């Protein structure tokens, strides 16, 4: 299996705080996400700053777009984002409109969604989905389990590049060892740790230990 | 039936453009919405500017929040928003977390949702929903019909204050005459018209003509 990417989600309420944290770990992670909270707080300036600081990395705008896909995607692309997220409850028309304006769309799987829907996303050319444990669900005591792994397998079998997120720690990564995960997304698990740089390196080391270094 | 409110959605990609438009109509409309596009472009500064200009009006942040409800709602309230939207696919935990931090939450009905879900929102104290024709669905040729009116009636019968949006014109308002609509939301139907102020006044006049002036 290919080595999964490590993505850091910058879910800060302040752009300055986000920049302070990414500066410590930007060269360790593979993908930088402008989290929804930061998008809503700092607007497209957050995307612009991260694009300026990291011209060669993938920058994702986690807009969870539900409507006006064309305009939102165009704005994100203009600000420098490579990819953007749409919520799974968005209409196909919204997702298609967004997909025309930016390199790739990732579908965020929240709440109810079905394999039939997922197949429709594949049929219109969507390659990526994000499988979530919601932050609020985690706070309410839910955690990763067999049910999640089964659904993840379904999605990778359909040909999706699947990103996984929600309460991930270095210790939980091995739960996913049988799944060709495309990207692990960590937020406060890295940025809120005592030593964010060491935390990011530990994630990368554990990913390499389990999945190899991607070199055949 | 009570007179429905008129809400203008500022779905501009530039804060300056939004402020230029609201200045023409701010005193005519009942509710001012910081649209999703504007939230994502200008961040919380958009909410702050509108709160500063219209200290006595209801300001809504159309975040379509899908996760981290507590943080997003707290940030919106701090910036001066009265109400905030959550997407219907958000978990109950997310909606509850958001509801604790801001005056009221409005649930945006996009894609698949059920009456059972809606009852759960009522059960946790949510009073408002927004019934949508998505912009992209409208662009794809869909329009208001019997199916929509039937679902609207279900929602008002459940006790929700229902806002209605998506491609509304002065001419379409009478379609809803049998429904106790709480708020009509217009965006470009007002802001992109040749004379936004006249357009807003025409909406208000037609609402008064159909539903009365709210005085018994």
TrEMBL record, chains A, B:
InterPro entries: Aldolase_TIM (IPR013785), HPS/KGPDC (IPR041710), OMPdeCOase_dom (IPR001754), RibuloseP-bd_barrel (IPR011060). It catalyses: D-ribulose 5-phosphate + formaldehyde = D-arabino-hex-3-ulose 6-phosphate. It is an enzyme of class 4 (lyase). SUPFAM superfamilies: Ribulose-phoshate binding barrel. Pathway: One-carbon metabolism; formaldehyde assimilation via RuMP pathway; D-fructose 6-phosphate from D-ribulose 5-phosphate and formaldehyde: step 1/2. Its EC number is 4.1.2.43. Residues 5-203 form the Orotidine 5'-phosphate decarboxylase domain. One of its GO terms (biological process) is one-carbon metabolic process. Keywords: Carbohydrate metabolism, Lyase, One-carbon metabolism. It comes from the Bacteria. GO terms for molecular function: 3-dehydro-L-gulonate-6-phosphate decarboxylase activity; hexulose-6-phosphate synthase activity; orotidine-5'-phosphate decarboxylase activity. It holds the Pfam family OMPdecase. Belongs to the HPS/KGPDC family. HPS subfamily. This is 3-hexulose-6-phosphate synthase. It comes from Vagococcus entomophilus. The lineage of its organism: Bacteria, Bacillati, Bacillota, Bacilli, Lactobacillales.
């Amino acid at each position: 299996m290919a080595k999964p990417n490590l993505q850091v989600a910058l879910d800060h309420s302040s752009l300055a705080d986000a920049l302070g944290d990414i500066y410590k770990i930007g060269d360790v992670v593979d993908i930088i996400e402008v989290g929804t909270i930061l998008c809503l707080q700092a607007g497209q300036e957050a995307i612009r700053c991260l694009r300026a600081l990291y011209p060669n990395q993938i920058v994702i705008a986690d807009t969870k777009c539900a409507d006006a896909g064309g305009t939102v995607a165009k704005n994100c692309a203009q600000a420098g984002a490579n990819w953007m997220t749409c919520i799974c409850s968005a209409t196909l028309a919204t997702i298609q409109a967004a997909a025309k304006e930016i390199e790739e769309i990732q579908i965020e799987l929240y709440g109810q969604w079905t394999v039939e829907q997922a197949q429709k996303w594949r049929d219109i050319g969507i390659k990526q989905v994000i499988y979530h444990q919601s932050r609020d669900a985690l706070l309410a005591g839910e955690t990763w389990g067999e049910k999640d792994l089964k659904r993840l397998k379904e999605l990778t079998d359909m040909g999706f590049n699947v990103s996984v997120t929600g309460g991930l720690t270095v210790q939980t990564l091995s739960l996913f060892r049988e799944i060709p995960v495309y990207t692990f997304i960590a937020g406060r698990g890295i940025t809120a740790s005592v030593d964010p740089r060491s935390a990011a390196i530990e994630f990368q080391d554990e990913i390499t230990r389990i999945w190899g270094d991607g070199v055949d």
